[in-house]
């Protein structure tokens, strides 16, 4: 998907996109002059500078492409597979927390957040996940509800 | 207040019950975070940051700082015994630390590390006592243009000297500056980049940004991707840690040299402990009469980088406290914590808040002492901590992130913002961007814009004001020098004889050793 030859084209592209987007938005906030700078001056200037950086990132990649062999570790510690399970469970855990804290209360929010997170690991077991979730729930309620008084009811509707 | 007086005052602050308690708590948490593979200092400081809002500012700062330097002690244990470079400054320690462990000398390596750390830290603190007030005094005379140029230098150094591609670093810094602008513009009241969302009119929360980038993004990267931990050699008792006379002799000068390199590195904005440790290792290898021993368990290869890390960690506080310019992302967070507690960072901090400045320095002495006590007699406990598997660590940490972000403003919206930055941060990691400069830019962004605008209002729109004023011109000159040097180094990468090449080599080797376990 992303190898050393093409990665920096995407990287440069992303930076250009963000930079131009910011600059275009910034221009709408009244740019002003150097003496009387409007709120749009700084973002617009930074946006164009950022887009320029993006061009440089892509350009240096083009220049370096021919030179030198690929490094020994092309992934640089990154995953070389699409880990949908891990990603899904981590994002899911945070979403679970948001939804549960809003509708069910602190105890279910902690328990389900940790429990969902656990399943992101490929060696997760039902027992281990449940035990960890229960342990963190007890500790979390004690620390955040009992001592620090976080503003979420233990269980909503009580 | 001069050094001795200030220090006395500092101890009277730091030894107060509450302050002492939080200092000890901070270094203990730091040490734990350092030991646990897969946990970072940045995420630990960010998780605890919202919990300090209810506290007074002195204990809050002492605790957050304690996490930072405490983690350096723990990180060394992880590197030496497990060969896991989970903390960037200690990655280079793996190279010789783990071979020593394999030879059954892991304890000695740790013992030498502790000595080097204590010495390096002590030197760094002394440096702060003598230099920080002096730097602040000079900085008193800075006007808006000088502050602007200095910030530019700090940002440029922070983004180009750190790990990874300098161009990408600059791009990330700009992104950070822009993120700092989100919200209501203080001069005109215009809402910028809020996309019509009321929750964003106060800007992006520092905690949400840093926990997204350094917490969630890091988990997305590490889940199912951690190196298998080799616990076979991780058995150390206190008795093993005592080095022989010959080993002490071998390590004495490397410790001294490492310390000096570390303190020099901390003087250059943007070069944090990671660079310091790599430079120290490379320099030690260079001057050694037997460079072939390096990588196979040379005690110098452990002593020098560790001493260097610690002196630079303490020295890192100097620009943060005396100028209000953070050298790296952790310092940016600490600066953010000061701002949240209503303290304006900058040269006036030492005079206006002597309790914080001198209390912090005194707490460094206390904290380092506590760390030695924690690590030498109780090493067995920390070694046991190494065994906590990642699969239990990250789900628990996820909950702490959620509740930490929520607690800041009782806002679930911010938890969503954190998730957004987590996913975005992971995308950046996949494209090989280093997210640390984002935080630097984010914290400095609003002040940078404010001073830039002010400088140009005073000069009536004349950009020459940045060059006409001598101090500002010097800073800009240094910026130009930095950029030129970077280009020069990149364009002639084939020269292997330079120190920079050695540093690069060491960092490559350290990177490779981390991935080798997969």
Verbal overview:
The complex is a heterodimer of chains A (158) and B (518). Chain A is mainly α. Chain A has 2 domains: 58 residues; 64 residues, no CATH class. About 4% of the residues of chain A have low confidence. Chain B is mainly alpha-helical and 518 residues long. Chain B is 72% helix and 1% strand. Chain B has a two-stranded antiparallel sheet. The longest helix of chain B is centred in the N-terminal third of the chain and has 34 residues. Chain B has one domain. Classes of the chains: A mainly alpha (158), B mainly alpha (518). At the A-B interface, helix 1, helix 2, helix 3, helix 4 and helix 5 of A face helix 8, helix 9, helix 17, helix 18 and helix 19 of B.
Number of domains of chain B: 1
- Quaternary state reads heterodimer
**Mean pLDDT, all residues of chain A:** 85
Strand order, biggest sheet of chain B? Answer: 1-2
**Order of helices and strands of chain A, N to C?**
HHHHH
Distance between the termini of chain A: 51 Å
Report low-confidence residues of chain B grouped into runs of 5 or more: 512-518
Going by helix content, strand content and strand pairing, the class of chain B is mainly alpha
N-to-C SSE string of chain B, H for helix and E for strand: HHHHHHHHEEHHHHHHHHHHHHHH
Shape of chain A: flat
| First-last Cα distance of chain B | 54 Å
Radius of gyration of chain B: 22 Å
Properties at a glance:
heterodimer; A: 158 residues; mainly alpha; 63% helix; B: 518 residues; 2 strands; disordered C terminus
How do the helices and strands line up, and which of them pair or pack?
The complex is a heterodimer of chains A (158) and B (518).
Chain A: H1 7-27, H2 41-64, H3 84-103, H4 106-118, H5 126-147
Helix pairs in contact in A: 1-2, 3-4, 4-5
Chain B: H1 3-14, H2 17-35, H3 41-48, H4 57-82, H5 91-102, H6 106-139, H7 144-160, H8 166-181, E1 183-184, E2 191-192, H9 206-222, H10 245-267, H11 273-287, H12 300-322, H13 329-340, H14 349-352, H15 354-375, H16 379-385, H17 390-409, H18 412-430, H19 436-458, H20 465-468, H21 470-491, H22 499-516
Helix pairs in contact in B: 1-15, 2-4, 2-15, 3-4, 3-9, 3-13, 3-17, 4-5, 4-6, 4-12, 4-13, 4-15, 5-6, 5-12, 5-22, 6-10, 6-12, 6-15, 7-8, 7-19, 7-21, 8-19, 9-17, 9-18, 9-19, 10-11, 10-12, 11-12, 11-22, 12-13, 13-19, 17-18
């Amino acid at each position: 998907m992303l190898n050393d030859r093409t990665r920096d084209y995407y990287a440069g592209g992303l930076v250009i996109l963000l930079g131009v987007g910011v600059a275009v938005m910034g221009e709408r906030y009244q740019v002003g002059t150097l003496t009387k700078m409007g709120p749009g001056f700084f973002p617009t200037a930074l946006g164009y500078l950022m887009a320029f950086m993006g061009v440089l990132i892509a350009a240096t990649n083009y220049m370096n492409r021919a030179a030198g062999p690929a490094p020994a570790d092309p992934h640089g510690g990154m995953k070389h597979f699409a880990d949908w399970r891990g990603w899904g469970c981590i994002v899911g855990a945070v979403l679970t927390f948001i939804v549960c804290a809003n509708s069910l209360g602190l105890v279910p929010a902690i328990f389900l957040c940790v429990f969902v997170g656990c399943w992101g690991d490929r060696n997760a077991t039902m027992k281990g996940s449940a035990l960890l979730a229960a342990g963190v729930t007890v500790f979390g309620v004690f620390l955040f509800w009992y001592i620090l008084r976080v503003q979420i009811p233990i269980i909503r509707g009580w | 207040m001069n050094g001795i007086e200030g220090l006395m005052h500092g101890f009277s602050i730091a030894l107060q019950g509450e302050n002492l308690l939080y200092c000890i708590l901070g270094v203990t948490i730091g040490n734990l975070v350092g030991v646990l593979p897969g946990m970072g200092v940045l995420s630990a400081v960010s998780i605890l940051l919202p919990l300090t809002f209810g506290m007074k500012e002195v204990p809050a700062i002492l605790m957050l700082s304690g996490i930072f330097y405490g983690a350096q002690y723990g990180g060394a244990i992880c590197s030496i015994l497990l060969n896991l470079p989970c903390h960037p400054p200690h990655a280079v320690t793996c190279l010789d630390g783990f071979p020593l462990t394999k030879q059954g000398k892991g304890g000695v390596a740790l013992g030498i590390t502790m000595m080097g750390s204590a010495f390096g830290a002590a030197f760094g603190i002394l440096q702060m006592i003598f230099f920080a007030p002096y730097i602040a005094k000079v900085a008193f005379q800075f006007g808006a243009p000088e502050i602007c140029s200095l910030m530019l230098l700090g940002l440029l150094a922070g983004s180009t000297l750190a790990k990874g591609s300098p161009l990408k670093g600059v791009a990330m810094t700009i992104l950070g500056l822009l993120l700092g602008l989100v919200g209501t513009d203080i001069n005109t009241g215009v809402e910028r980049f809020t996309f019509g969302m009321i929750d964003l009119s106060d800007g992006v929360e520092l905690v949400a940004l840093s926990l997204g980038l350094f917490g969630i993004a890091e988990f997305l990267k590490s889940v199912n991707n951690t190196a298998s931990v080799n616990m076979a050699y991780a058995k150390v008792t206190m008795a093993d840690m005592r080095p022989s006379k010959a080993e002490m002799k071998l390590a004495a000068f490397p410790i001294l040299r490492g310390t000096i390199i570390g303190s020099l590195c901390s003087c250059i904005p943007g070069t944090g402990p990671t660079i310091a440790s790599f430079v120290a290792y490379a320099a030690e290898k260079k001057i050694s009469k037997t460079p072939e021993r390096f990588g196979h368990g040379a005690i110098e290869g452990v002593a020098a980088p560790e001493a260097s890390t610690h002196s630079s960690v303490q020295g890192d506080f100097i620009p943060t406290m005396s100028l209000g310019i953070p050298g790296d992302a952790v310092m940016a967070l600490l600066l953010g914590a000061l701002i949240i507690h209503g303290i304006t960072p900058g040269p006036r901090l030492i005079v206006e808040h002597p309790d914080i400045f001198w209390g912090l320095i005194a707490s460094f002495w206390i904290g380092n002492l506590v760390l030695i006590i924690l690590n030498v007699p109780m090493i067995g406990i920390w070694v046991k901590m190494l065994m906590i598997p990642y699969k239990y660590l990250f789900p628990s940490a996820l909950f702490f992130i959620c509740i930490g972000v929520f607690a800041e403003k009782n806002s679930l919206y911010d938890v969503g913002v954190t998730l957004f930055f987590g996913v975005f941060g992971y995308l950046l990691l996949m494209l090989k961007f280093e997210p640390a400069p984002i935080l630097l830019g984010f914290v400095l962004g609003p002040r940078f814009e404010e001073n830039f605008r002010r400088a140009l209002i005073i000069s009536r729109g004349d950009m020459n004001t940045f060059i006409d004023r001598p101090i500002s011109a010097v800073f800009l000159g240094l910026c130009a020098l930095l950029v030129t040097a970077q280009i020069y180094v990149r364009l002639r990468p084939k020269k292997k004889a330079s120190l920079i090449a050695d540093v690069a080599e060491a960092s490559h080797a350290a990177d490779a050793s981390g991935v080798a376990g997969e």
